[in-house]
Amino acid sequence: MSDLHLVIGNRNYSSWSLRPWLALKATGLPFSETVLNLYTDETTAWLAATSPNRKVPLLEVGTLKIWDSLAIIEYLAELAPAAGLWPEDATARAIARSVSAEMHAGFQALRQHLGMNIRKRFPGYPVPAAALADIDRVQALWADCRARFGAGGPFLFGAFSAADCMYAPVVTRFVTYDVALTPAAQAYVEAMVAQPWLAEWSVAAEQEAWVIEKFEATWPA
Ligand SMILES: N[C@@H](CCC(=O)N[C@@H](CS)C(=O)NCC(=O)O)C(=O)O
């Protein structure tokens, strides 16, 4: 097998980068990485020359380039089936794929109004009304996954899975913006915050020196 090389963006802000990075960690396979400071002229030019969709994440496997977070996770699930990125049970797997696709395609208001910013804390953040429906839906689907499939562990499908990779940046947003959660959702957030790979990423995000002003929320001033 060729070497795995993952190109990602700023750990503090790049939610799409976090997802496949967690999945790569879950495979246990060795990999190298390039971390880019996004939205600089240099990075934009580099991505235009290197990444088919001009974005991160990008997984390079020899000459093969795989772009898009979910496509990378699917590739890794096939490459390392023993990692159990998708649940073994067919019903659980179908729901895990559904909630992952829903995350990938949706929750625009949540993503717009509560941008990932792992370093920041906004106690009592006034969540814009537009994002509340997304937050309710996230909590409902988390509760459904936990109730139906979560008996074997603290994650959405019990053991850590691709669905947790997909929702990890929502977990960090809920922490950053001090979002009031149901007890069940709060318990899941705490399990994820304690998850060693997400904790490792968060420490690296804290230590990252790059600042992207347009992603720095201005509330409170
Ligand atoms: N649908 C893509 C979204 C990727 C994406 O939007 N990446 C952002 C960073 S989180 C990016 O590369 N932005 C850099 C740019 O547009 O120049 C995925 O799931 O991977």
Short note summarizing the structure:
The chain has 221 residues and is α+β, with helices and mostly antiparallel strands. The protein has helices at 15-27, 41-50, 69-79, 90-105, 108-113, 129-149, 162-176, 183-193, 196-207; strands at 4-9, 31-36, 58-61, 64-67. The N and C termini lie far apart (51 Å).
Structural account:
By secondary structure, this protein is of the alpha+beta class. The chain folds into 2 domains: 4-83, Glutaredoxin, CATH 3.40.30; 90-206, Up-down Bundle (Glutathione S-transferase Yfyf (Class Pi), Chain A, domain 2), CATH 1.20.1050.10. The chain has 9 helices and 4 strands, in the order E-H-E-H-E-E-H-H-H-H-H-H-H. It has a 4-stranded mixed β-sheet with strand order 2-1-3-4, with helices on one face. The radius of gyration is 17 Å and the shape is globular. 38% of the residues are buried. The mean pLDDT is 96. The structure holds glutathione. Glutathione binds at residues 9, 14-17, 38-39, 44, 47, 55-57, 68-70, 104.
Corresponding CATH architecture of the largest domain: Up-down Bundle
Euclidean distance between termini CA atoms: 51 Å
Identify the bound ligands.
Answer: glutathione
Q: Which regions are unreliable across 5 or more consecutive residues at pLDDT < 50?
A: none
CATH fold topology of the largest domain? Glutathione S-transferase Yfyf (Class Pi), Chain A, domain 2
The H-and-E topology, N to C, reads as EHEHEEHHHHHHH
Helix content: 40-55%
- Return the CATH class of the largest domain: Mainly Alpha
Count of domains: 2
Count of beta strands: 4
Query: In what range is the share of β-strand residues?
Result: 5-15%
Q: What's the alpha carbon Rg, rounded to whole Å?
A: 17 Å
Average pLDDT for all residues: 96
Shape assignment? globular
